[in-house]
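As described in the Methods, two query proteins were run sequentially through the folding procedure within a single session, without resetting any intermediate state between them. The first query and its resulting structure tokens are shown here.
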Amino acid sequence: MKAITKLAVATLLSMTLFTATATADIKKGQKIYLKKLKARCGFSGSKFAHKHTQDEWEAIFKAGKFSSEVKRICPKAKLKKKYAPDVFDFVYEYASDSGNVPSC
């Protein structure tokens, strides 16, 4: 009985850790914006995120047009596909209707 309990707890813990690493991160998205996009865009992350509401950002991301929207807002920007989920989480969290303000 102890072995089954230990196995169940270990499985649950590993699944929890896996899901945490499989999701995008708001702070990581903010760092990516600061390092890769801010200088090319010429404005803060707050101004960038406030270009759309949360629903608009979500619709853009789900439609697969997030990178092209970033390019439209900031023509000099180059956003790698692997960074898109994190930057999306960042702009979604600080969108114009969220009431949140980033520190960048």
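Immediately afterward, the second query was submitted; its sequence and tokens are:
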Amino acid sequence: MIKVYGNLNCPYCVVLKENLDRNKIEYEFIDVLESLGNLAAFLKLRDSEPVFDHLKQINDIGLPAFIDEEDRVRIDWENWLTEHGYSIPVPKASIFENSSCSIDRKGC
């Protein structure tokens, strides 16, 4: 089972959850703003995994992020779904009007 780090105020996270649900994929959703423990776990992951390096340079928070069934940290959920033969019934672009996901509030 995969483990997803995100927040329901993040449009990318919502779309990922909807795609996982529609594809009937089991996952654990960890809302990083639900508790300090969840936030600390995500920040530890973000600070230690090279997959986040570019995102940190461009002031992107790095959500959603997930740990796949092989314990690899990933931020490319669309590729993961496609690689595993799943469809992407809910496209990302459909919900991003007036949203802000980066630290500098320049958008998703």
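The chain has one domain: 2-95. We note this only descriptively and draw no conclusion about the first query from it.
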